[in-house]
């Protein structure tokens, strides 16, 4: 039965599966020298409307950690929100990949960094005994299911310029944020000051594979060596690249994200007025955080629903490219009964 514990629970969308089968015909050069990698790199440059550098890795932890390592030296630090995935869910990988760059944690309403808290950390200490701030990392949409507006990112870029900081965007759910804001990929990234993006595909219908997109191409120097050294260079890269072609062509990635977002909105609107249910954060993308009474929570788990406890006692429900209204209605009914 379909669950809403994570969008990683979903399968491969038909277009991606078809692209994989097509790529499994004949031989292609290895290590990214194949026609699929060439085509999808060109497609990504078209989507972002710039001559960016594009690399492919297996997963989001690698995309985040290696891209941050390319922006930092070991004595630098990364400013991020205290709920950021790089802090809470990557087992120290960003520090490991950079040989020790420290994460500096800020709070902020609804899981978002703001210029005031960034500046507070950037100026906390300036002596040689403290790791020098070098990067701001934001997540779009973020770990609480909330998106940064373009104006908010512009404001972060302003403070980044003031302190000579680079901006990394964790875009594990990039497509969901893009659909939510209704803007272009360029508008949400390099046009508002993002230097490098971890571009997520796995949560949006792919089997595996993320892209690292450098808008400031100087920062991509020797990045291919980082990818190789980290064990993230796929010898049969066409099977990562072909998936990206399958999801990007005909805007399947946006269609998938829209369904996930729509199901999250539908669910949140249906449950927010139920007794014993409290909506914890705004619903901007495909994640919904609700606080349930202990009785309802225990009942749902006994029935067989899978969901995760989160910040402040919230329970997280995540909707996917293949979430159906019928199955969401079943969850709503079980919460109400």
Compact description:
With 337 residues, this protein is α/β, with parallel strands linked by helices. The protein is built from 13 helices and 11 strands. The protein has 2 domains: 238 residues, Aspartate Aminotransferase, domain 2 (3-Layer(aba) Sandwich); 85 residues, Aspartate Aminotransferase, domain 1 (Alpha-Beta Complex).
List its salient traits.
337 residues, Aspartate Aminotransferase, domain 1, Aspartate Aminotransferase, domain 2, alpha/beta, four-stranded antiparallel beta sheet, 16% strand, globular
How is this structure best described in words?
The chain has 2 domains: 238 residues, Type I PLP-dependent aspartate aminotransferase-like (Major domain) (Aspartate Aminotransferase, domain 2, 3-Layer(aba) Sandwich); 85 residues, Aspartate Aminotransferase, domain 1, CATH 3.90.1150. The chain contains 13 helices and 11 strands. It has a 7-stranded mixed β-sheet with strand order 1-7-6-5-4-2-3, with helices on both faces. Helix 8 links the parallel strand 5 and strand 6. Helix 1 crosses helix 10.
Helices and strands, with pairings:
Layout: H1 14-23, H2 35-48, E1 53-57, H3 60-71, E2 76-81, H4 85-88, H5 93-97, E3 102-106, H6 115-122, E4 132-139, H7 150-162, E5 166-171, H8 174-181, E6 196-200, E7 210-214, H9 223-229, H10 238-248, H11 252-271, E8 277-279, E9 287-292, H12 294-303, E10 308-309, E11 315-318, H13 325-336
Parallel strand pairs: 2-3, 2-4, 4-5, 5-6
Antiparallel strand pairs: 1-7, 6-7, 8-9, 9-11, 10-11
Helix pairs in contact: 1-10, 2-10, 8-11, 11-13
């Amino acid at each position: 039965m379909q669950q809403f514990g994570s969008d990683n629970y979903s399968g491969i969308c038909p277009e991606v599966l078809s692209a994989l089968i097509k790529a499994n015909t004949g031989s292609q050069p290895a290590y990214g020298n194949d026609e699929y990698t060439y085509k999808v790199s060109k497609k990504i440059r078209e989507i972002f409307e710039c001559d960016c550098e594009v690399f492919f890795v297996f997963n989001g932890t690698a995309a985040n950690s290696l891209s941050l390592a390319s922006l930092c030296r070991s004595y630098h630090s990364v400013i991020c929100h205290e709920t950021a995935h790089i802090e809470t869910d990557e087992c120290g990988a960003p520090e490991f990949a950079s040989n020790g760059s420290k994460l500096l944690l800020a709070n902020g309403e609804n899981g978002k960094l703001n210029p005031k808290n960034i500046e507070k950390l950037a100026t906390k200490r300036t002596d040689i005994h403290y790791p020098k701030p070098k990067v701001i990392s934001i997540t779009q949409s973020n770990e609480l299911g909330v998106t940064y507006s373009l104006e908010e990112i512009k404001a972060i870029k302003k403070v980044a310029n003031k302190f000579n900081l680079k901006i990394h965007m964790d875009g594990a759910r990039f497509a969901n944020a893009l659909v939510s804001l209704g803007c272009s990929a360029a508008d949400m990234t390099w046009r508002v000051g993002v230097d490098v993006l971890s571009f997520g595909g796995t949560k949006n219908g792919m089997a595996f594979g993320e892209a690292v997109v450098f808008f400031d191409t100087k920062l991509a120097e020797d990045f291919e060596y980082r990818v190789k050294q980290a064990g993230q260079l796929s010898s049969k890269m066409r099977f990562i690249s072909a998936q990206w072609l399958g999801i990007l062509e005909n805007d399947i990635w946006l269609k998938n994200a829209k369904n996930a977002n729509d199901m999250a909105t539908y669910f949140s609107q249906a449950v927010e007025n139920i007794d014993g249910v409290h909506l914890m954060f705004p619903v901007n993308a495909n994640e919904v955080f609700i606080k349930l009474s202990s009785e309802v929570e225990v009942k749902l788990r006994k029935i067989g629903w899978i969901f995760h406890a989160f910040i402040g006692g919230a329970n997280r429900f995540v909707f996917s490219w293949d979430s159906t209204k019928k199955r969401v209605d079943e969850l709503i009914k079980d919460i109400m009964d």
